[in-house]
Write a structure and sequence with these properties.
homodimer; Arc Repressor Mutant, subunit A; DNA-binding
DNA sequence: AACTATTTGTTCGTATGTATG
DNA sequence: GCATACATACGAACAAATAGT
């Protein structure tokens, strides 16, 4: 007896998601391209617009498209970024599946490796960017969000320098997560991120000494982690206060 | 001039997603609970069913709920897992944003650390599970999928033993990604995963020597990585063949 | 085995909001 | 100001799945 697959196995919206995703991954639609309008898609797939819209919501959440309203609007293909990864981590954190001490443990282990790799890939361009990022840390604080961005810029550049997109994604995800928590708790920026905090790291990396860079980063990660754990405590207390 | 926020900022479905997500995260709906039916939700929110359904699609993709059809069906809250993380990595891989050699580099670095931590947390229960997983590797192969599961079981247990959910998520995600690729290429299982491949690791971990465990894992990761890179090559070739 | 109730899945028609030219 | 081309949203209806009677 041959095995037959059910004719209808998936939701229509899922079928549409798969087809559109494949088209995007195969490069038939490239980043920036506009997908056909909802009406056109519903005609091409011979389905209702509601089904198309459900599919577009899924693709949006997965990070494949963004939509804009209006005459020149529509669904536009986006360059897939680490953002979804970051969101997934954030959800796991919010659901208490991952704790700050655990993240701290991971960071203390792998950020020195990132610094180590970065020290092996110093170029004049990267050196310039690192110096500028370091100087920008002393800029007057306009908003907390902007300040956090400036104080994490060095980590981003080092991650890029590591030459490994995986490390880059990981760093960006963890920085994004940290930013969310910091913004929620809103601590004193000067205590959380003293200016020039990353100077020893940058100097070690620019000296081209991988082990020195790793060591400097490790010390920074340990120090910063202590602050972060304090902040998480405040965060949890704030949350439980809001709930009661 | 005071700054006013636009009254209507988000899509209705987004608003619903946020509210439901908050409810779930606050524990008002727990894993296994059934959300109100689509009709009830649309009445409670005073919106159309289509809007509710778009919200449910988003929550589904994010891993918060699953839906079943029928009289006892509905949207059920799920325990948030690493699955979304895994999917995010898979998408990034499929979109050529992360390569196998990059993943390989990261694994060779952090899997030894996982083994190191595991060696510090050996209990009789874990020891038993590791031994059983090792024996199961020699079972006759029924299906590729099942075989891959058996050959990765040791990694999963070690990740659990590390006591760090972040490492656990990372390991599970990467194993899931590896499995997808392996299944796609369908190589000879005996070549890819010789039985007993993980014996030195298990022995080192059970001896309780962290550095020995890390060393054994490193050697395994390096060896396995070579296979994986070959497999990726085959995968890419297969894909480009399918496209032409 | 047939019927019924409940719930998701899907469609269509219509109306409204939004941005461009 | 107005037409146009989009996304956004609603409501009513029917189809399909799934359990209980």
């Amino acid at each position: 007896m041959p095995k037959f697959k059910p004719v209808k196995q998936y939701r229509i919206s899922e079928e549409i998601v798969e087809q559109l995703k494949q088209s995007i991954l195969l490069g038939e639609f490239k980043a920036g391209d506009k997908l056909p309008s909802e009406r056109e898609l519903s005609e091409q797939f011979h389905v209702s617009r509601a089904a198309v819209r459900e599919a577009l919501r899924s693709l949006e959440i997965s990070g494949f498209i963004t939509t804009r309203q209006g005459a020149t609007g529509g669904a536009f293909v986006t360059d897939l970024t680490f953002q979804n990864l970051s969101n997934a981590f954030l959800d796991l954190f919010l659901a208490n599946k991952i704790s700050i001490p655990e993240i701290y443990q991971v960071r203390v282990f792998f950020e020195p490796e990132v610094a180590r790799l970065a020290a092996k890939n110093v170029t004049p361009e990267y050196a310039e960017r690192l110096k500028q990022a370091l100087e920008a840390e002393s800029d007057p604080i306009k908003s907390l969000s902007e300040d956090v961005d400036k104080k994490t810029a060095v980590h981003f550049i080092l991650a890029e320098m590591s030459g490994n997109h995986f490390y880059e994604s990981l760093v960006k995800s963890l920085m994004g997560l940290t930013k969310k928590i910091v913004e929620e708790v809103n601590p004193d920026p000067h205590v959380m991120h003293p200016a020039g905090m990353h100077r020893p790291i940058v100097e070690a990396v620019l000296s081209g000494d991988p082990e020195k860079a790793a060591k400097a980063m490790e010390e920074h990660a340990i120090e910063f982690g202590k602050n972060l754990i304090k902040i998480e405590k405040a965060y949890r207390e704030k949350k439980s206060f809001q709930m009661s």
